[in-house]
């Protein structure tokens, strides 16, 4: 199955301001884009740049292209059945206005033909809108129309958190502690 998914946000900011935000991706505490409070952390094995390997549970990718302040492309490495890429681009939209553009283009195979539309797509869409809220906040100091999760996304998030806890249980406190 072919997938083409696009998200955009028009920001009242310059290309350089928006570009500076995307350059903070996966930088830990200084990350102004990734909504790490509500989503698994975005992590790479090295600083953002071509060849960096990482992702966010359970999605993995390799950075295959990077023009600082302008464009990043990620090639999928997991989950199984995701074949393609996603990318972020900073596009001019007139004086003092910039479009933050995200494109995901892939084919799905095997179980991914079912998991993409049922789980990954709604989660992907919600996560991107949360990231765009963070970019808008960083560039303008506010968010005009904050993204809202649907009840279905809240359910999927709860199920995902439960799955993570079952794979990585917290150590039990010793008796009497």
CATH architecture: 2-Layer Sandwich
Strand content: 25-35%
Supply the helix-strand structural class.
alpha+beta
> What is the domain tally?
1
What is the overall silhouette? Answer: globular
> Level of helix content?
25-40%
Order of helices and strands: EHEEEEEEHH
Mean pLDDT: 92
Radius of gyration: 17 Å
Number of H/I helices:
3
> Low-confidence segments, ≥5 residues, pLDDT <50?
170-177
Reported by name, the CATH topology is Alpha-D-Glucose-1,6-Bisphosphate, Chain A, domain 4
For this structure, what is the CATH class?
A: Alpha Beta
Instruction: Characterize the largest beta sheet: strand count, sense, and whether it forms a barrel.
Output: 7 strands, antiparallel
Q: Can you tell me the CATH superfamily?
A: START domain
The end-to-end span amounts to: 53 Å
Give the tally of β-strands.
Answer: 7
Strand order of the largest sheet: 1-7-6-5-4-3-2
Secondary structure elements and their pairing?
Layout (H helix, E strand, L loop, with lengths): L1 E10 L3 H8 L20 E2 L8 E4 L2 E9 L3 E8 L3 E11 L5 E11 L3 H29 L10 H17 L10
Antiparallel strand pairs: 1-7, 2-3, 3-4, 4-5, 5-6, 6-7
What is the structure about, briefly put?
The chain is α+β, with helices and mostly antiparallel strands and 177 residues long. The chain is built from three helices and seven strands. The chain has a seven-stranded antiparallel β-sheet with strand order 1-7-6-5-4-3-2.
